Amino acid sequence: MLGGRMPEKSEATRRIQELRETIARHDELYYRQGTLEIEDQEYDALKRELAGLEAEFPELASEASPTKRVGDDRTEGFAKVKHRERMMSLDNTYSEAELREFAARLGRIFPDRNLPYVVEPKIDGVAVCLTYEGGQLVRAVTRGNGVEGDDVTANVREGVPALPDTLKGDAPEVIEIRGELYMTRAEFLRINTEREEKQLPLFANPRNLTAGTIKQLAGVGGRRLEIVLYGLGACQPRTFKTQSEFHAAVKGWGLPTLEKYWSAQGIDEAWACIEKLDTLRHDFAYETDGAVVKLDDFALQAEAGATAKSPRWAIAYKFAAEQAETLLEKIDVQIGRTGAVTPVAHLKPVQLAGTTVSRATLHNEDEIARKDIRPGDTVVVQKAGEIIPQVLRVVTEKRPADSQPFEFAAFLQEKGIEAERVPGQAFWRLKGRDDPALIRRRIAHFAGKPCLDIENLGEAVVDQLVTQGLVRDPADLFTLKVEDLLPLEKFAQKSSENLVAAIDASRRKEVWRLVHALGIPNVGAQSAKDLVAHFHSLPAIMRAQPEELEQVDGIGAIVAQSIRTFFEDEAQLDLVERLIAQGLRIEEEPPAAGGEETPLTGKTVVLTGTLPTLSRDEATALIEKAGGKTSSSVSKKTDYVLAGDSAGSKLDKARKLGVSIIDEDAFRAMIGE
Ligand code: IVH
């Protein structure tokens, strides 16, 4: 929090604004594009810092803050659909006493009765509402803000093969069936292993990946999701009297349903069922983080009613996160692509929620100080739905007598790591650009899949190139010769020639890849594409003033300033000049050969929704072949919006701005395909 001291209000106002903008941007990237530009730890640190400032200055807190917006998943690009019946959330408790208070409140509404409950597992997934009409699946919509959500029908159909399109047997005319999308641990691991091989950032946990997958605009990309259904929304005609009857019907229709639920008379029996669930839940196919206790009888539910946010007839009892005690052997640091220096705990391996844990994140310097974590301490580690465990607290009674507080700055100095604390933030960044760890990360990023995508230049090779002193920055890659590579481990004539050829081929890759590869803070693949679509060349981006940069859709004041600062840095300018001297492509190619006009020369097209036959990539390729450019957002400068099914707010914006809207047929006719 602002260097660990109490910030001035004006300083806090500025910082809160900046944090909200940055976090919103990363959320957008994560949820809409399924990508990450910063590491999880950095993201968490930003959120924690914002929550801290908002707590300190409540007058600056806002309902629109990302710390408050937990209950709204609506994103741009999806059509909005109103739920027939509102999707509410649940009150949560971790305490048995509060659970009993819930029952006591109901007891006051319905005196002298041992109320009938159902106890269900609480699935840690992503809520979704399915509508079946005449027994046919017609729509799948996210919870959104509870009143309306995003139409994700196409992604649900593609991504959830276990979901039947047609209900077996008799079904009501119209029914909303609610449930949870989730991803199996096996599928999550498969995707992360693949990403690791491609050197892409890893997803933090199955829940976030499920949320990201269902919100991808271009389909689910081969990721497999599952669904479990447990809730009734609108239903015509209304035929069910109880939740248990509804569960039986869900099963009868052939839909995936809860593996187990219990009927209980009164809260004592319900509590016994919760304890039973706790012993069984690790064998379920989905992550279960608690139990949901509901009044079984729909008539009683209606009578009990709801508050503004949640029903009075149900409560979620959450199981405490998995914890274990172990020895913190040493504290070390991890260095991220952007040079962020993050402390990591090396632990004596311990079993935790079915896996062996030997490392845990310590987040940042302040976190270590706040919890007074020291090497040699016995610590409690926790896994709370997250894959990366955390150090929760120190068991001080077990602290060795000679223990000393851990001094982060002194530790870095001792290790010879030249870093500085980023002003106004809780984390440290490497100072020297000569640190081999940072050089390795920078080159691996430059060569990685989302950047210049240089084949066979994985981390192990980068490691050798840097250790052997062959490469100090990305421009050095282009001076490598076959003879330089031959002495390296696992390199022979053919593999050396292949790598040199792959590096050479990267000279001709799209300009946005180079812009992304430079590693400008806050500029990811999408921003790089937007910048190149707007300025057409790297030198033009380098010259642009912040006001001009802000003209680009999706680039705000912070990112604009970050680009400016980057290109004012002598060392970066030197690198870019050397890359240019190496013949890398820095300008978009002229639209057509021989100056010949093609159908979309100079035109900007925005894609939205699902096209009948073309994938997003195919449509983009056709647009570019016809001399046009694509952009991710609609503005007055957009020439056409190419819209398919489930097109959302981009279509509305196009209508508002009077931009021409075309469908796939019109598009094909236009480009003569
Ligand atoms: S009932 C009005 N039952 O937990 C009742 N919800 O924290 C609303 N959830 O939004 C939901 N398992 O996404 C219900 N067995 C279960 C559930 C469940 C998971 C989710 C659901 C809800 C959230 C509330």
Give an overview in words.
It contains 25 helices and 22 strands. It folds into six domains: 53 residues, Orthogonal Bundle (Helix Hairpins); 239 residues, DNA ligase/mRNA capping enzyme (D-amino Acid Aminotransferase, Chain A, domain 1, 2-Layer Sandwich), CATH 3.30.470; 100 residues, Nucleic acid-binding proteins (OB fold (Dihydrolipoamide Acetyltransferase, E2P)), CATH 2.40.50; 73 residues, DNA polymerase, domain 1 (Orthogonal Bundle), CATH 1.10.150.20; 71 residues, Orthogonal Bundle (DNA polymerase, domain 1); 68 residues, 3-Layer(aba) Sandwich (Rossmann fold). The strands form five sheets. Strands 12, 13, 14, 15, 16, 17 and 18 form a seven-stranded antiparallel β-sheet that branches. It has a five-stranded mixed β-sheet with strand order 2-11-10-3-9. β19, α23 and β20 form a beta-alpha-beta unit. The protein is an alpha+beta fold. The structure holds 2-(butylsulfanyl)adenosine (IVH).
Q: Which CATH first-tier class of the largest domain would you pick? A: Alpha Beta
Provide the structure class. Answer: alpha+beta
User: Radius of gyration from the CA trace?
Assistant: 28 Å
Mean pLDDT across residues: 86
The helix count comes to 25
Helix percentage range: 25-40%
Assign the CATH topology of the largest domain: D-amino Acid Aminotransferase, Chain A, domain 1
Distance between the termini: 57 Å
Strand content: 15-25%
Q: Which CATH-level-2 architecture of the largest domain?
A: 2-Layer Sandwich
C-alpha geometry? globular
Unreliable spans are: 32-36
Enumerate the distinct ligands: 2-(butylsulfanyl)adenosine
Total domain count: 6
Largest sheet, described in full?
A: 7 strands, antiparallel
The name of the CATH superfamily of the largest domain reads DNA ligase/mRNA capping enzyme
Number of strands: 22
